Amino acid sequence: MIILVSPSKTQKENHKELWDKFEFSTPVFIKESLVVNKSLIKTIKEQNEFLLYEIFQVNEFSVNGKALLKDTIRNIEQFEISKQYPAIFYYYGLVFKEILGDKVTVNQINFLNQNLFIMSAYYGLVKPLDLIKNYRLMMESKVQIEGVRLVNYWKEHINFYLSKLNKTIINLSSKEYTQALDYKKLNIIDFDFLVNANGKIKSLPTHKKIARGKLINYLSQKNKLTLDVIKSFNVDGYKYDEEMSTESKIVFIKNQE
């Protein structure tokens, strides 16, 4: 089995006290990421500012919108010479905060590095201890890479690589990144985390993000990746729901407090 998870827009150095305990690596699709970077540089030169806000999903009218777009463009133009960071200690969204928790151990990080891939619109697939650079790019971006949409560019590379691994995919990525997966070529198990509010089943996006991270953290603490261990997940009141689950989808439900 292998776990897939989406990246986070928020990127920030964290858990720096652990960095010197690991040897870092290079993403498997580093050459392909340079192709993406080259295409983005071309896009920046050819498109007007209005379209760049759309391509990089920056709110032009937000307080920091102009500064964010400027930083995004600078990072692209200086991509090959900019600083690198270990992925697991740099993605800093809701999911990743839960993956690491308050106190993460060396053994947990090693488990994650062996069993987890982070999907990325810039790098394709990233292992936790791969070195990445600061970027802002979403898989659903309309930018063209070698004549095809970004998601289709990565779909070919990602599915070829994962199919060679010949492992069941524990898919904890978002819908945006799941678009890059080929269900005909891969054995994929999807997940849902639901809330029972007085008999009414709800799907709450923020709860889902947190639960994805907590499940990955739970597995890293157990140091084991099997269906039985996954189904035993019981953090924050979640319980495996056998009736709603299928062979290709595992559902957890918790009662709303």
TrEMBL record:
Higher taxonomy: Bacteria, Bacillati, Mycoplasmatota, Mycoplasmoidales, Mycoplasmoidaceae
GO biological process: response to hydroperoxide
Protein name: UPF0246 protein P271_665
Family as reported in the entry's similarity comment: Belongs to the UPF0246 family.
Position of the signal peptide: none
Organism: Malacoplasma iowae DK-CPA
PANTHER family reported for this sequence: PEROXIDE STRESS RESISTANCE PROTEIN YAAA, PEROXIDE STRESS RESPONSE PROTEIN YAAA
GO CC terms of this entry: cytosol
